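Quick review question:
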């Protein structure tokens, strides 16, 4: 290759590279897949809907089950954090029982478990909860079992509301969960938290970001 040809080749290469980098920067991220609300969105009023689900205001006990922390950010499709998003979440207790009058599961209610929380994302789009690993439960009238999951409603004016369910990586019940079985691998990955190392207090930590769409 002559020097002039080489310069031209390098120039083309450089243009190609920078275009690819710009392309990567503007590429919109996949939004978090939505999932059905399910029948157990809480209907019983609850005074305590803070970020610590392992304790209930006015009670001295601690929720039964494996205590975990789940945290992350609410982001738009360009990965900009979104402040002031309502993060509304609910889940089954360690026995797989919802604190809901229509839940037919005969398992006990845990009076020290706060089954519902409503939070606002912080200035970095951040949220964090302390909770317990949700229990498994049978789907009424079937022999199917729901794997561990947390239900989330994510909403803010100017954005499309997101209703979804978050899964835990490598949970043994994921493989037979009827809702996961309907998903593509990519969708399941977008709905599954990442396991991080334990907190300094030895609490297992999971990270999960929500990607929502501007209207
Ligand atoms: Fe559920």
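Suggested answer, residue by residue:
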């Amino acid at each position: 290759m002559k020097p002039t040809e080489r310069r031209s080749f390098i120039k083309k290469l450089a243009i190609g590279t920078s275009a690819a980098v710009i392309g990567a920067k503007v590429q919109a991220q996949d939004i978090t897949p939505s999932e059905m609300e399910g029948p157990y969105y809480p209907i019983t009023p609850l005074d305590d809907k803070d970020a610590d689900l392992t304790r209930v205001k006015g009670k001295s006990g601690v929720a039964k089950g494996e205590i975990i922390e789940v945290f992350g950010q609410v982001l738009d499709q360009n990965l900009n954090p979104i402040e002031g998003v309502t993060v509304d979440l609910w889940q089954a207790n360690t026995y797989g029982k919802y604190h809901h009058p229509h839940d037919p599961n005969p398992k006990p209610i845990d009076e020290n478990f706060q089954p519902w929380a409503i939070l606002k994302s912080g200035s970095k789009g951040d949220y964090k909860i302390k909770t317990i690993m949700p229990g498994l439960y049978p789907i009424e009238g079937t022999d199917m079992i729901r794997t561990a999951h947390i239900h989330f409603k994510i909403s803010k004016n100017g954005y499309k509301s997101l209703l979804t369910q978050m899964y835990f990586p490598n949970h043994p019940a994921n493989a037979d969960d009827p809702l996961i079985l309907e998903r593509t691998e990519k969708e399941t990955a977008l709905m599954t938290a990442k396991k991080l190392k334990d907190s300094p207090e030895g609490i297992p930590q999971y990270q999960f970001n929500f990607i929502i769409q501007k209207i």
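Why it works: Residues 38, 146, 149, 151 surround fe (ii) ion (CB under 6 Å). The helical segments are 3-26, 178-181, 185-190.
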